[in-house]
Amino acid sequence: MQQSYGVQHQSLTSIGVGIHSNDTETYKEIHHPLMVTKNNIALCFSKMGKYEKALEVYYSVEKIQTEIFGVDIPSTNNSLLCDISLCIDTQNQIGSCLYEMGKYDKAIEIYCSVEKVQSEVLGNNHASTLATKNNIGNCLYGMEKYTEALEVYYSVDKAKSTTLPINHPSTLITKNNLGSCLYKMGIYNKALEVYRCLDKMQSKTLGINNPSTMATKNNCGLCLSKLGKYEEALKIYYFLDKTQTECFGVNHPLTVNTKNNIGCNLYLLGKYNEALEVYNSIEKIQSRILEVDDQSAMSVKNNIGCCLYGVGKYNEALEIYHAVDKVQTEFFAKKLFKKNHEVVLIDD
After folding, report:
1. 104, 142 in Cβ contact below 8 A?
2. How many CB atoms lie within 10 A of CB 200?
3. Integer CA distances (angstroms), 274 to 173, 269, 271, 318, in order
4. Are the CB atoms for 18 and 24 separated by under 8 Å?
5. Contact between residue 203 and residue 213 where contact means Cβ atoms under 8 Å apart
6. Which stretch is the leader sequence (predicted)?
7. What DSSP character marks residue 12?
8. Is the dihedral of CA 322, 327, 330, 336 positive or negative?
9. Which strand (E) or helix (H) includes residue 23?
């Protein structure tokens, strides 16, 4: 299901570690500009999606920081907070890269160690601590441990409700994540409650044309559809279709996705002819912008076949299914051939 917010890797306030001696001060003075530059290089790699390269740089920064400040984190000392602000931030960025690479188990180890320090020094309700807790929840979500993720998100939401305004962007992120967990767990009624609450807040603060608001409305529709409330879901999708067409254009992936959801709900209502019209319009759009063997295009063609079958036009449905089968067979044969003929380098 589409989420309106991704992982929010907010900048973390860091904690001082190690003992300051004159030698340490000199070493730090020499290496601080180097660490800043390396950090900037890693940030660029990360923004470019080159997470492995970013990680290499961050690990080199971490090594320098360990040499300067040591490994263990001592008791709180406010005079050290500014000195080592890069330490925890580096750990946070390492966790971010690992998360983006899908290495959730390694990322969560990093975030848990960061969260422990932040809770001790900054407090459980500090914005940086809550941001890290949210990232822990995101890792659990990525690992499909939705019950554990839900517990984390609930604790973050509770803390934020006492420290931040109800419409604060950070609060909205957490509520979205709550809804996503509930949806994944099949608790559609509760997920719908969360998304409706979120939609109300986003509409007021962001506007109905904001992509995040649209994504939340889409999630409301998904929940209604799962609950068998297809007519209610359609009302949302028709509204979204109109808004997205005006904002993004008819060929935009979000608009096409909404049209697909309209077709799906019409089909589930048994309105096969209306669904067929929608799917034919989608196929027309996709034929101009997608390759013939694109899996999304194949899915729409398959849905057209289902609609034709539903209205008793079995010969036409059969033609569609044969066409889809031919393209898919060729596509997967090419994919298998490519996989079986990859060059493998063997070290001595």
Report:
1. yes
2. 13
3. 36, 10, 6, 20
4. yes
5. yes
6. none
7. P
8. negative
9. helix 22-47
Cα gap 345→342, rounded to integer Å: 10
> What pTM was computed for the model?
0.80
Name which of 122, 136, 32, 135 is nearest 86 in CA terms: 32
Scanning the structure block, which residue is given the tokens 């601590």?
129
Pair 255, 248: CB distance under 8 Å: yes
Tokens of 347: 């070290």
Can you read off the two tokens belonging to residue 245? 């067409």
Query: Which of 155, 106, 161 has its CA nearest to residue 133?
Result: 155
- Cβ(318)–Cβ(301) under 8 Å? no
The series of mean pLDDT values per 10 residues for the chain, 348 residues long, is 36 32 48 79 93 92 78 47 67 94 96 91 90 95 96 95 89 94 97 97 94 96 97 97 96 95 96 96 91 85 95 96 90 61 45
